[in-house]
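quick one before i forget lol
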Amino acid sequence: MKKIFSLFVSALLVAGMFSPAFAADREHTLKVYNWADYIDEDVLKAFPDWYRQMTGEEVNVIYQTFDINESMLTEIEVGKEDYDVICPSEYIIERMLKSGLLQKINKEQIPEDLRYFDNVAPFAVDKFQQMSKTENVSDYTVGYMWGTTGFIYNPRYVERAELRSWGAILDPKFEGKIYMKDAFRDVYSVIVLYAYRDEIASGEVTRDELVETITPERIARVEEVLLAAKDNVAGWEVDFGKEEMTKGKTWMNLSWSGDAQWAIDEAAEVGLKLEYVVPDEGSNVWFDGWCIPKYAVNTKAASWFINYMCIPENAIRNMEFIGYVSVIATPEVLEWVDNEDIEETADLSYFFGPEATAVHANQVLYADKSVIDRCALMHDAGDMNEELVKMWNRVKGDNLSSTMLLIVVIVLVLLVAFVVMQFVNKRNRQKAQQRRRRR
């Protein structure tokens, strides 16, 4: 269904871009640029009617999707594309703020009784504010979805206790059994917590400071850990790791909480049990948020659209469709989260307030406060971005395990032997033919 929807909206985009109305009436067209499969189709389609009811104006939504933050950023930074609403991740929001590539959301134009921006959890607002020391970040962006990074694992092969540390990636037991996200920032920001676990425990450094301030020394220590784990890494993946987990083809996958829940649900349908855990050293807490980029044209409709996405009903429908967790923290959402069929309770007071200390919640999606207290926000690497990329390339380039290397050598030897045998056989046939001709 989601892939069909992506094709559907792409078709709408192409049709819209070539229509005379699109070219002539940009003032009444809203261009939304979002991740693929990251919104409920009915919520999106209902926006023009809602906007008309609220403002008396017409709007035509042109919806386009991107696969990675950097491609979206390049289109705006270099191509100066006129998207009205975008949905980047936190480190890109931070970079765009620093570069002056975002406009303020015009919240004041919306009547006070229709403003839903305040439905965002103060927890998310506070985390977003860590992106800037000079700007009020909430003026420029409103959160959308969020989550943590941890391990998806198959309890048939891996005990939960074995994953209490990110150091599990070094355990020889897991040789060739781990998939890692091909996302250097995400991996760096959790492995650095393991590499500096002793300094964290002694109070020499905090998790927030470790993740925010990237230095050559810290990159080197993370690289050392990742290189030591190379025999255990079966592959670096962007999206297929969760599917491999559902097929029982690997034991564990360093992944995002939303992908973990998808894998858990899919595996359950075929009778396979998967679980998710955040190691004790801590993790990153990531966010995606709505923004209005510098070259936007219809900033009025953009502001109303972001407001519309903060309506509790829409937040719930989006969560049900995409499987991730909204930043909206109203009583309606808390009621939706609280599921009596779940025996274990979680302290979600950090998100929903003091009345939510014992919620029957899915802790893959809504982590307990004890987990969140160990999580830090991922930041833009700034001037150190190039060094991180170089480190990542070295790690991936040197990722052939000893077992895989042996297999490659054996295959090469067999190929050489085959070629030699073919050559020898050919020469023998030629000599035989020559002998027959001489007779």
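fyi Residues 2-146+287-337 form a domain with the D-Maltodextrin-Binding Protein; domain 2 fold (CATH 3.40.190.10).
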